[in-house]
Amino acid sequence: MKKVLIALLLLVFGSMALSAREMRDSLSVDGPYVLYRDGRVRVISVDAEGSIKDEMFDEAPATLAVSDHEGRYPFEVRLRPFARLDWKVAQQPSRVFVMSDPHGRLDCVVSLLQGNGVIDSDLRWAFGDGYLVVIGDICDRGEDVVQIYWLFYKIQQEAEDAGGRVTMLLGNHEPMEFAGNMRYAKPKYGILARELGMEYRDLIGPSSELGRWIATWNTIGQVGRDVFVHAGLGGDFYRWNLPISEVNAQMSKSLFLRSRERKAQSDTLRFLYGSNGPIWYRGLVLKIKRFNPIQRDTLDLIRDRLGVDHIIVGHTIFRDVRTFHDGRVIGVNVDNPVNRRRHRGRALLIEDGRYFVVGDTGKQRELKQK
């Protein structure tokens, strides 16, 4: 009987040890997460051994070290003041680089930006007075979500210093994670949160540096004669006739609410966060009935109201960057790892009034415009 009891105890504790080991193995380089509470600063990160580092400071560290989940692409970040950028830039810059849906793949981001001269070999801004527009969905699917946030956080300031601009727009996955929906996140993020005794949404919430920054992002942005939005603008958007500034303010104000709380707060938020709202609507690029495909006259009414020639979107994945509705709509979302490997288009470059599909080594072809 005693031998049986000992065997059972060994089995139980052996299973517990295995689970702990598997948990450590599931964690990879992550963070830093910078949280503010009661006048102090908490910095949490995961090192190359999968160990969690959790420190408290009276004031924020001067610099933060960042690298991808395998310790590659190292860079440093300085915390800085920030504010919401104007959603509209009337004058057309000489160069606008447009990318979408990085989904946690820092290697794909670095390859694309370096291959097109947007950043240099040290991951510093190299695009001068050019503009970079990122059409949402930094998070989910990949292992380097936080690191990508920090890279864009860093180069946004560097771009401003050089006379350029980095515009970040909300996708549908940012609000999902902030509402606690982790269905598309890698297990490492949930494991980290459980080890810390919190929900993952608390690590990037309104009391965090990254959460505060992301809350300044717009949902819809315009540069010259192009408007940018994660998913699309359809007939319901036209009928609601909301000022773009109100759309952006409402989306940010409710960013950290649970999904049910957003729906209960107002009909406006129910629409904005719904399937026909700007971060989910696919009817600009898909003709399937359940997506409420847009009618040509409605599309032209939206363009006329906004005073733009093109609506540029991400969200819906296509084999390559492509146009719709005789060039009035441009979709830039692709399967980034696959397209990188197969040397297909991954972004859009607007240069001197011309529109080019670009890959990881520069221009591939010109998009014909209406």
Profile the largest sheet: 6 strands, mixed
* H and E order: HEEEEEEEHEHEHHHHEEHHHHHEEEHEEE
Going by CATH, what is the homologous superfamily?
Answer: Metallo-dependent phosphatases
**Biggest sheet strand line-up:** 6-10-11-12-14-13
Q: What's the β-strand tally?
A: 17
- CATH architectural group: 4-Layer Sandwich
* Class from helix and strand fractions: alpha/beta
Distance between the termini: 84 Å
- Which consecutive residue ranges, at least 5 long each, have pLDDT under 50? 1-18
CATH fold-level name: Purple Acid Phosphatase, chain A, domain 2
Please give the count of helices: 13
Percent of residues in beta strands: 15-25%
Backbone CA Rg: 22 Å
**CATH first level:** Alpha Beta
Considering DSSP H and I runs of 4 or more, what fraction of the residues is helical? 25-40%
Tell me what you see in this structure.
By secondary structure, the protein is of the alpha/beta class. It has one domain (88-367): Metallo-dependent phosphatases (Purple Acid Phosphatase, chain A, domain 2, 4-Layer Sandwich), CATH 3.60.21.10. The protein is 34% helix and 21% strand. It starts with a helix and ends with a strand. Mean pLDDT is 94; it is low at 1-18.
Layout of strands and helices, then pairs:
Elements: H1 2-26, E1 30-37, E2 40-46, E3 52-57, E4 64-66, E5 75-77, E6 88-89, E7 95-99, H2 106-115, E8 131-134, H3 145-161, E9 165-168, H4 173-178, H5 187-196, H6 200-203, H7 209-214, E10 220-223, E11 226-229, H8 235-240, H9 244-253, H10 259-265, H11 267-272, H12 296-306, E12 310-313, E13 322-324, E14 329-331, H13 336-341, E15 347-351, E16 354-359, E17 362-367
Parallel strand pairs: 6-10, 7-8, 8-9, 11-12, 12-14
Antiparallel strand pairs: 1-2, 2-3, 4-5, 7-15, 10-11, 13-14, 15-16, 16-17
